[in-house]
Amino acid sequence: MKKNSKYPHAIQVDICGLVIFYSVFVNVIFKQKRRLLEELEDTWLPYLTPRDDEFCQQWQLKYPKLVLRQADSVPKELHKEVQEAFLILRKHGCLFRDLVRVQGKDVLTPVSRILIGNPGCTYKYLNTRLFTVPWPVKGSTIKYTEDEIGTACQAFLKLNDYLQIETIQALEELAAKEKSNDEALPVYIAPDFPRLGIETSFDGQDEVDIKSRAAYNVTLLNFMDPQKMSYLKEEPYFGMGKMAVSWHHDENLVERSSVAVYNYNCEGPEEEKEDGPQLEGRDPDTWHVGFKISWDIETPGLTIPLHQGDCYFMLDDLNATHQHCVLAGSQPRFSSTHRVAECSTGTLDYIFQRCQLALKNVRDEVDDGNVSLKSLAPAILKLGEEIHNEVEFEWLRQFSFQGSRYNRCTDWWCQPMAELERMWKKMEDATNAVLREVRREELPVKQRNEMLTAILASLTARQNLRAEWQARCQSRVARTLSVDQKPECHPYWEEDDPSMPLPFDLTDIISELNGQLLGAKP
User: Residue 357 pLDDT > 90, yes or no?
Assistant: First the structure.
């Protein structure tokens, strides 16, 4: 194995609405992975478990922003409520495998999931936008399909509050360590390991900043039963065994924000191992989380055993500088992964504001049933069409692609999505108004060209994305899903639908507009 090879850190990209950037990002990751595997050839990289003498030292030196809290440090009543909540959601069929997009292909995640969090929040990963089942925050009114589901969501809100307090405390310890250089601060609290110091790179964070990095607004719940999965991949770099979740950085998070994870192995108490010959490497019957420095072949990886009720925390920039994977044990497992989702473009408030901005250019009055526009300025037309695409492809189609799964838990999203669709329909009318204007013979050629240039890119993207989403809804994998999970291509309408001002297929319109633009050039 060659030494001193350098691999760039994986780049975190906000993929919200930027499909082309996401594709480039995935390609970069696959190329880096291939280079790393070629570099290793047939050699495993070293990794450490708690049985290794240098485990604690390596954790302290190379993974100082990873914190573990064992189950006995968490209140017993909270354990009881959270673990019952997991089982309630599973009983009511509230967890689903996601149909995600990877390298241009639709694949089902091996892990079943549900997103719970602040009302109106979303979380996006692998070109899939998940919509929160709202937890009952103060001042909210949420109707759950079953009282038990409401109780479960309340339990995860309580867990979220607890983990937020624990995270703030850990971040304050990191900041204090920088100021005092106190080597006695703990990174791993457990009877078998010493209390270790933490090195940090905090540069004078104030209390508000620390709290913002722990302001968890969603939790992504995961469930997996390895006994029912015959196709778990082998960990490729260290030989750690079967992976439930491959190496990755968590996506779509506020920069340098923390992640807190609660672990629950749900099938009874774990059996104590009898004294005997020590296994080499990690115990394959026990769930572990693995950590490594991104694309680093010099530093040993770590595997941390996860027992029922354990919590671990990825603080500050650990999620960006390191990758983690989940290594399967023998029992079914739940986890609740609390995150500060980057919601600047991912809340209902945001998208409603965007819709209102686009519709400001639409006159309230209509002429012969046709919408008219206040301004034909190219910049305003361009913005309106971009927002048109955003609400259609980042919200309406994302939501309908996931079938009627959310109705299992609550009807909370029904009214907002209906309102978004109403606003989107008005944007279809606005686009039609633009097309009427550019077709007017008396319109000056320069103005027509400027208007065409402003809208053509968005219309072309709209046509391409409609074709892509329609194909995804009809894919072989999609057809295997149950009725309430089956993707729906919505909005969709036939060409002769009198309620729609424009056809679903924009091919002919785009061809016409391109012809006008080319025909006007000298």
Answer: yes
Q: Which residues pair with 219 in a beta bridge?
A: 116, 338
Which residue in 30, 32, 41 sits closest to 9, CA to CA?
A: 32
**Closest by alpha carbon to 148, among 218, 82, 92, 78?**
92
Query: Residue 269: pLDDT above 90?
Result: no
Nearest to 220 by CA among 129, 325, 315: 129
Rounded Cα–Cα distance for residues 307 and 510 (Å): 58
CB atoms within 10 A of CB 138: 5
pLDDT of 208 above 90: no
| Length of the chain measured in residues | 522
pLDDT of residue 271: 52
CA 248 to chain centre: 12
Task: Determine the Cα–Cα distance for residues 101 and 103; give it in Å rounded to an integer.
Answer: 7
pTM of the model: 0.86
- The long-range contacts involving 485-494, CB below 8 angstroms and separated by at least 24 positions, are 485/96, 485/402, 485/403, 485/405, 486/403, 487/99, 487/400, 487/401, 487/402, 487/403, 488/400, 488/401, 488/403, 489/397, 489/400, 490/396, 490/397, 490/400, 491/392, 491/396, 491/397, 491/421, 491/424
Structure tokens at 211: 């709290």
The pLDDT tens digits of the residues spanning 62-97 come to 999 999 999 999 999 999 999 999 999 999 999 999
d(CA 431, CA 414): 26
CA 66 to chain centre: 21
The DSSP secondary-structure symbol of 254 reads -
Q: Find residue 304's DSSP bridge partners.
A: 289
Tens-place pLDDT, residues 481-490: 999 899 999 9
Copy the structure tokens of residue 101: 């997009």
Tens-place pLDDT, residues 428-477: 999 999 999 999 999 999 999 999 999 999 999 999 999 999 999 999 99
Q: Rounded distance, CA 365 to CA 425, Å?
A: 16
